[in-house]
Amino acid sequence: MRGAWSLVLLLGCGRFGIDPLLDAADPVPGDVPIDSAPVACAIDGDPCDDQNICTPTSSCSAGTCIGDPPLTCTVARSESEYDSTQGAGGWFYGFWNVTDDPNGTYEAATELEELAWLGSTWRPPTWQPEPDAEFTWTYLAPWGGHPGTYPRITYPIRRWVADVSGHASAVIHMNKADLNGGDGTRAILVVDGIERFRRDVDAMDGVGFTEAIPIELSIGSTVDLILDARADDGTDTTTMSMNIESR
Ligand SMILES: [Ca+2]
Ligand SMILES: [Ca+2]
To answer: What pTM did the predictor assign?
Structure first.
């Protein structure tokens, strides 16, 4: 029976995506182990991979692979590396069209649509100023952004594509910037198509949270930070950032 239930849960949770109907209190599917143990090695002095994203070279020392030199670092910063060009610094600016998604589950490999640069912010390519029918609140700015629930539900996404491999932390900060009401907003972190983290901030939460989420990176890994409106996009302006650091 346990196997059968596991299969049901696996299918129900969207193993390779996220289910927007999951409540924030639901457990996050995280069935890929996060490994931060030291990397063992055999022969002193031999080159090896210490799985530290900050050390391009490393070598074996007393049975443990050690970086040359040992380092901790930040390899990506969403705010200071914000740019008007897709892909600059490994950062991409996109959105998930929830309304037109046939299964309502975010598939990172195929469902991130690119935002368009509009002078200082990234917005959906069909965006027009109010009162046009294509006006939406969805946008990204260096300091954060805003999700939209009309004319379609569209959630902006910052994506960083890894040019390093190894153990890392995605350090996410989030707080409400507009404290005039609404139902708050939600951060969802999806790494290589698998949800790793979600957390809400309430409407009047101007302090919010900073949290380091352990992740594993390969060259080309996609780290997607989604700004979800919860039920409504009213006064959803949100401060939101993500740094990628070693651990
Ligand atoms: Ca989908
Ligand atoms: Ca909201």
So the answer is: 0.80
